[in-house]
Specification:
Layout: H1 15-31, E1 41-47, E2 54-61, H2 68-78, H3 103-112, E3 130-137, E4 144-151, H4 162-168, H5 172-181, E5 187-191, E6 198-202, H6 207-212, H7 221-229, H8 239-243
Antiparallel strand pairs: 1-2, 2-3, 3-4, 4-6, 5-6
């Protein structure tokens, strides 16, 4: 089947299509049998308070403690009181279906999104280095764009610093290629689309060419896209998400 025909203008996304691929991606995470991976990797579908547009937030500890008690404590702080990746007990299977929307859950999502000029504060007391990745739809390129910020790094390592990004996020095999790419097609910096605070992102100008060779459904769009974009900054989707039923 030619899935490209299901899009208004493949591989670009309009806002409605982006909302749908975000929902499918979140559903994959919820239904996947991740096991211990849930202890260090968390995905949440969120909404911008001012526009109600969807985006994906991914949290990952950079240096998980070896001690189980310390790990549980750190993840509890990071996840806002729940273990990183723990399912919300109130979130039933019906609530993650595309044709069933819970207004209370939507309102809670809206309330939990940081307002403009407000920094995310997931781990004020965790004292564990972590990275926040976010996937937003780029208004100009009409492609998903991967934003990322470092938090709680050891003293002396600035969080908004390209050297810190290369030290903590970029795998060795990607470093020379990213540096050669420069700003266009590589790591760029700009005001964050929600907080307006400076943040890093992967420039989306070359994403179209990379995606054009694929033919994937909306259920798989972000899985394919992250496979192309995420690895260069240390973000890999757990393989169990590809195996989960959707």
């Amino acid at each position: 089947m030619a899935y490209q025909e299901d899009y208004q203008h493949w591989p670009f996304l309009n806002q409605e299509e982006f909302e749908l691929v975000c929902a499918f991606f979140d559903q994959k995470y919820v239904s996947a049998e991740l096991g211990p991976t849930r202890k260090i990797f968390k995905i949440r579908s969120r909404r911008v308070a001012t526009t109600a547009n969807s985006y994906i937030e991914i949290l990952r500890l950079l240096e998980p403690p070896d001690d189980e008690d310390e790990l549980s404590k750190a993840l509890g702080m990071l996840g806002g009181g729940r273990e990183l990746g723990e399912r919300n007990e109130e979130r039933s299977d019906d609530m993650i279906m595309m044709d069933s929307v819970d207004e209370d859950a939507d309102q809670e999502a809206l309330r939990s999104v940081p307002s403009a000029n407000q920094l995310p504060s997931y781990s004020q007391y965790s004292h564990q280095p972590y990275v926040t990745y976010e996937i937003h739809l780029h208004a100009t390129y009409r492609m998903p764009t991967l934003w990322f910020t470092l938090h709680d790094l050891p003293m002396g390592d600035p969080t908004f610093d390209l050297d810190s990004v290369y030290r903590y996020l970029v795998p060795a095999q990607f470093k020379s290629g990213l540096r050669a790419a420069g700003i266009t097609g590589g790591i760029s910096a700009a005001p964050h689309p929600i907080t307006d605070v400076p943040a890093f992102f992967i420039h989306p100008c070359q994403t179209r060419e990379a995606m054009e060779s694929f033919d994937c459904s909306k259920k798989e769009y972000l899985m394919v896209w992250l496979g192309l974009v995420g690895g260069c900054v240390g973000l890999w989707v757990p393989p169990e998400m590809a195996e989960s039923a959707t």
